[in-house]
Amino acid sequence: MASMLRSGRFFVGFLLLGAVWLTEPGHARELRISHQWAPEIDARDRAARVFAKEVEKRVPGIKFTIHPKSELGIKPAEQFDALVDGRLDLAIYPLFYGTKKVPEFSIGLLPGVPANTELAGLLKGSEFEEKLQALAMEKGVRILTWWWLGGGIASRSQFIGGPETAKGLPIRTGDKAFDLMIQAAGGHTPSMPSTEIASRMASGELEAALTSYESFVSFRIYEHAKYATFGGYGIWTSFQPLLMSRAVWESLTPEEQQAFEEAAAISDAYFVETQLDALKTAVDTFRKAGAQVRELTYDEYENWLRVAKESSWEEYQKISPVAEELFASMLRSFIASDRREAGTLDSDEDSQPVNAP
Fold this sequence. Notes:
Blueprint: H1 2-23, E1 29-34, H2 43-58, E2 62-67, H3 79-84, E3 90-92, H4 117-120, H5 127-139, E4 141-143, E5 148-155, E6 171-172, H6 176-184, H7 197-203, E7 208-212, H8 213-218, E8 227-232, E9 237-239, E10 242-245, H9 246-251, H10 254-288, E11 292-296, H11 298-310, H12 312-317, H13 321-342
Helix pairs in contact: 2-10, 5-13, 6-11
């Protein structure tokens, strides 16, 4: 009997020891990634899988589960609160979704800055990224990846080029900052979800729409829009990173944090390629459907920037001193990237930003 009791105590002790071992940092940790898009199809889902695989290679004790199509029951816009309060570990989160909580986050979808996903890469490692990361951490999340979604504009009956071509037209933008710019150019901005763009175009209620290249294809907008301005310098680029709960980030060891950053860098490079592919697919799909496709010219892009400067950019900078400095740091970071390429980063020349890439 004593032998059985000793064996029983040993067994219970073993279970308790095992339980402690399993919950210690670095051992059998499962982290959940949430998002709203289709699995294995959407670029954001695929990039998340690249990220997860790369972390798991570097930190065998960490495993990820990916939950697409909001299957955890957390609505897309509510993921931010879930990250902050610890109900969620990671989420793919279009930054502008968080503007009700952090108004400065609307810088993740401002007209004309950056001009495309490749130029957005110039901001990685910049003063702007540092300030944006500091703001995110202050609010309870860590920005892990540098994923910028590319997009353009498509219309039913004419090319939308410079601001003058938008005058009098109903154009869906899906964002307040873009609404301000289109309205300043003389256009109208009806509100509707992305899923209704095609049907509203078919009925004639809507002339044009701004959205991502992937959405133009997935929502079959090419069936009704016969003119598309895609590629080159653009006015629609959206920051949609993988965010992590600050509490979870701070629970990682320095070695684990480094592994996460290495994995994020690999996913960043992968994501740029997905957006180049998305652009090509959108162009090919629209042309196959009989649409005409061209790039926005630099002059047209520059004219849009002039309108944005007096409308959406001005409104953004009024949000707070933090927003004003964040926007200024973005422009300074683009100038610094130009100087790096030209080999004049240490120049004492006092430059003021005129145009934004």
